[in-house]
Each structure stands twice: as C-alpha cells, then as structure tokens.
Amino acid sequence: MSKKIKTQAIMSAQSRAEVVDNIAQMGALQREILRLNAELNDQITPLKQACDEKVAKLQSQINVLSESCHIWCEANRAELTDNHRVKFADLSTGVVKWRIKNPSVSISQKNGAEVIDRLLQNPNYKRFVREKLEVNRELILQYPEMFEDNQILGIKIKRGEEDFVIEPNFDEVGAKA
To answer: What pTM, to 2 d.p., does this model score?
Structure first.
C-alpha cells in the first residue's frame, strides 16, 4: 500500500513583475536564513568552547590515570596474566588488555615517489607496486565521436544538460549602485 504525499498547489507567476517580486522575496528569505544561522552559530560558539575546555580537562585526568594504571600493570603483568598465559586481567572495576597491533607499512610522503622508483627498478620488487586503472573521462570528452553510438557498453556522454537556476541578488532591493 503506497503512501499518499500531499503537495502544495503552485500557481505560475503571471507577469515579469511578479517573477521579479518573487525573486526579491526569495533573496529576502535566504538572507533571513543566513541571519538565523549566524545567530545560532553565535550562540553555539561560546557553549562549545566552554564544553571543549571542560572535556580537555577531563581527558587530561583520564590520560594521567591511564598512564598510572599502565605503569603498575606492566610492573605486575606476570601476576595479572597468570604468568603470561592470558593477555588480559579482569579487575573489579574493569578489564586491562595487552594487544599486539596488526603490522602496517608506512611510506614517508616526502620520499613516496622515490620509493616507487626504487621498487620499479628491481624486477623482484615490481610486484609490490599497485597500478590503479581507471577510465580517463577527460580524454573521452576530447574524442566524443568514438563513443557517440554506444560503441563501448556502459560509457555514455551526456551533452550539456540545462539547469534552471535562480540567484537572488543580495543587494538591498531598490538600492542603486
């Protein structure tokens, strides 16, 4: 069973003057939205700053407590982990865990291109360079005749579609430049 959606009946503007008036009203409404958003942001900013300061203080306390627990737990790890048989300790107020992170590879951004060049120079290391294959859309637009009759299934060139755009001026209505 489909839901019925009620839509508002809209009358077409009856004259150029009415269109000009409608656009002026749209501009006034958009400016009012901007004013309301600015007022909201003005009210939010001090609240966010106050909250951020409180959160930073609390997070600092959490960091100190965490580091304190970490130091003690490392010193008493054998006792907590049943002589290293498990990687966690269930304490009355929470659980502490020791986890080995997954290995990862880091490549410095400064030397990234040089690293790729070095990998490509050695035949044994070429396989460690991944080539990203993607359709060159800009080149297709330079040769549209090759794709006009759907020669390649899935590639379609959209000709310049027309959009209707209304941009109200943000000048005062009736003000002269």
So the answer is: 0.54
